[in-house]
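Practice set, problem 2.
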Amino acid sequence: MDDQVTPLLERIDARERELVGDAAQIRAQMDELTARLRELDEEVESLAVTRKTLLALPPATPEPAEEPPVLPANPAYQQILDVFADAAGPMRSRDLCQALDLPLKPRNIESTRHKLKRLVGLGVLAETDRACSSSAARSSSPFRATRPSRLPHSPSGSRRDR
């Protein structure tokens, strides 16, 4: 071979080795990128399935808020609740009559007991025993929890409520 061709062939060999090495590096990078692309595609698919599942769920309905009971039109019921709001514990009908400055006559005590029973029936007070009613004994009482200054009155107050 010619002395001029040998250096050219060596340069061609060197360039060929360089290109083969570069091609091998690029193929390795392509394999890494292909694997990464596959991972990203799987994640996108997973998110699409999650979105589809969430959209298929029925809308969440909030639990209905418990409305405060409607008190009878008689203002005595609000006075009773005001006393219980300040009371430290359960009260008997007699104690409530004293707190309301009512004469301690059987008629007043029985009327007060009847009103307490009505408030127990409405769920505003809780009866701790046969002769005692308490708002403190029932921590989930609407009156205790919200402490409204006035609860709504019924639109038609009957004679029985007075």
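Problem 2, part (b): a different protein.
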Amino acid sequence: MFEEILKWVGSVLASTAVFGIVVYLMRSTLTKLIGKSIEHRFDKKIESFKAEIRGNEKEFEQIRAFMGSIRKERDSTLQAKRFEAAETLMRQRQFLGQFTMLVEYVKMLNMEEILKNRNDPQIAKFIKALTDPVDIDEKLKIYGTFDRTMTDLYLSERIKKLFETYQYIMLNAVMIMKILSLPNLDINPDLFKKDSIKNMVIELAPLSKEGFDQFGDSYAFHWTNYFYTEILTELRNELLGITSMSKDTEAATQLALDSRRAQISLHAIFEKSGLSEDLIKSDAR
């Protein structure tokens, strides 16, 4: 009986050992199989992720190319608009240059003496002879048709200020000569005192302040050539060189000729009038 029990126990132990070995071997095999399965799935996930990244990179590249194209097109359009605005401003500047003779008259005439003796028919005739050839009314009518939308939208603040100052000086000269040419019109002498025009010039050309302190507000009319030239210089700087403005040399030459012609014209008309030399500033005689 005892021997049978020992045999049974021995067989059980043997079976358990075998079972343990089998379980161990199976666990090792299962572990390898599960590991390979996980590795395979992981590799598939990695490949899928890489493919997704490559797809996204292509999509991002397309987006970058599209945005670059849009930006280039926008910059090209904006630059074209700037050129158009610059050309519009140049036409306005050159048109205002036709009033250069009137600016020269204002610079040379002694306004205090003219206002003091304004009721003299000879003075009225003298002023009329100076202003009639310029045809102020017709030119102002034409100038009013210029469209300033492009210049306001696409040019820098400095360029706009330079032009506004130049325009203000020129139109002030036009207004002064126009008023003097109107008979029987009471004129306030303070009309020729222009703090606003002085401040505009000093803001853009600080070195002019000393001249204003010495010569008064009328000194602004001596800065027309500076602003005429500075507008072009600033435009070229902003637009990186504009070759389409090659005709400006001709316009500048015409401006100088108009200035000289004004001096000759004033003296010629003045000599015929028989008026006192006090009507012309001493440095312009």
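Answer key, part (b): Residues 242-248 have pLDDT under 50 and may be disordered. The radius of gyration is 45 Å.
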